[in-house]
From TrEMBL:
The active site is at residue 275. The lineage of its organism: Bacteria, Bacillati, Actinomycetota, Actinomycetes, Kitasatosporales. It comes from the Bacteria. One of its GO terms (biological process) is N-acetylglucosamine catabolic process. This is N-acetylglucosamine-6-phosphate deacetylase. Residues 55-381 form the Amidohydrolase-related domain.
Length: 413
């Protein structure tokens, strides 16, 4: 990885650029300080990306992430948290929400205070509590002994521990106090997410009507979709008020299920997430996930006791590439799901989520095979793309031999 380089005025030109209005071939992105600005076509180009099949997309926004680089958001020190942030940033995630796992309330409150300081510093975009207000029937990789019903007073206490940084709470809304807690969160301006739930269809509809707006990793840790018992999945997919999280690592969801979600909800209601744990960007081995032990083998994280899938080792650049090249999702739809939609949910569409003048200069450069070759965050290169080839190398650049054909707006790769 190239060292971080601060730039004052940067002009990228010659790559395909994905904008809210569609795909621009051989486009330009001009950065002044930390913001994207309207550029002058006559201005000198600082990064010539032409002829190599490159694509420039907005920086990725991850709503649901537990850590990476060997470090955890739930139990790590401030430096541990920053290690995880930097790991995901190098993989294109320029905005990340820190997700916690089930712990005792005092431990969660202490960690929330630490995380809130990093939110204030701008390193994190908020806190997401995944647990302890979840169903023991669908607990996944959460310690059942620490689970509790979502009593509104306790939910409020945990939100307040975040000192204004809490952005989302995952709830099994069928539990006692669940609906009241959804209403409370909506009143507080915090996202109520339905997840790790054993609710039926009607119960889920009630939670949506009460103000829930997100489905935590749809399909995972909830009853399956059945023809006479549609359960929460049907209710969450059909309602336009719900954005559905999807973990696109090839382990959590079959490609046909991902396509079903995009087709049913539409790209405007999908948020691609990692649900990453410590091992993301770090490697196989034994890890702690809250109070539980996890073994990561060949990139798949499972509890040592019980063998449940325990989050993922996914990074969003991998999720992006897989969505386009394996799942056949249109490039513009993937950009919407991985950047624009989560930015909207966070209430930050005025600053992040798309490449438009006035917004933060958060962007990712992908090569012809959709592998990451550059990351800029707020005008600073985290990963600087390679210089344009010269001489004989330039003559063979952009032949398409290294990756798939170009994807235009509305086409599928």
């Amino acid at each position: 990885m190239a060292p971080v380089t601060t730039t004052q005025r940067t002009v990228l030109a010659g790559a395909r650029v994905v904008l809210p209005s569609g795909v621009v071939e051989s486009g330009r992105v001009t950065v002044d300080g930390s913001r994207i600005t309207a550029g002058d076509p006559a201005e000198p180009v600082t990064h010539d990306l032409a002829g190599r099949g490159y694509t420039v997309v907005p920086g990725f926004v991850d709503l649901h992430n537990h850590g990476g680089g060997g470090a955890s958001f739930t139990s790590g020190t401030a430096e541990d948290v920053l290690t995880a942030v930097r790991t995901h940033r190098a993989h294109g995630t320029t905005t990340v929400v820190a997700s916690t796992v089930t712990e005792n309330l005092d431990a969660l409150a202490r960690q929330a205070a630490l995380l809130s300081e990093l939110v204030e510093q701008g390193d994190l975009a908020g806190i997401h509590y995944e647990g302890p207000f979840i169903s023991p029937c669908r607990k996944g990789a959460h310690d059942e002994t620490l689970l509790r019903d979502p009593d509104p007073a306790t939910v409020r206490k945990l939100v307040e521990a975040g000192r204004g940084a809490a952005r989302m709470v995952t709830l099994a809304t069928e539990l006692p106090g669940g609906i009241e807690s959804v209403r409370l969160l909506a009143d507080l301006g915090v996202i109520a997410a339905i997840g790790h739930t054993d609710a039926g269809y009607a119960q889920t509809r009630e939670a949506i009507d009460a103000g829930a707006t997100v489905a935590t990793h749809l399909f995972n840790a909830m009853p399956p979709l059945l023809h006479r018992e549609p359960g929460p999945i049907a209710a969450l997919l059909e309602d336009e008020r719900i954005t559905v999280e999807l973990i696109n690592d090839g382990t959590h969801l079959h490609p046909s299920v991902l396509e079903l979600a995009f087709g049913s909800a539409g790209a405007a209601r999908v948020a691609l997430i990692t649900d990453a744990m410590d091992a993301a960007g770090f490697g196989d081995g034994l890890y702690d996930l809250g109070p539980l032990k996890v073994e990561v083998l060949q990139g798949v994280a499972r509890l040592v006791e019980g063998n449940s899938i325990a989050g993922s080792t996914l990074t969003l650049d991998t999720a992006f590439k897989r969505a386009v090249t394996v799942d056949g999702i249109a490039l513009t739809d993937v950009v919407q799901a991985i950047s624009a939609n989560p930015a909207r949910l966070l209430g930050r569409s005025d600053r992040i989520g798309s490449l438009e003048p006035g917004k933060d200069a958060d962007l990712v450069v992908l090569d012809a095979a959709y592998d990451l070759v550059g990351v800029m965050r707020r005008g600073e290169w985290v990963v600087e793309p390679p210089a344009a080839p010269s001489g004989a190398d330039a003559a063979t650049a952009g032949t398409g031999a290294s990756g798939p054909a170009s994807v235009r707006s509305g086409e599928r790769a």
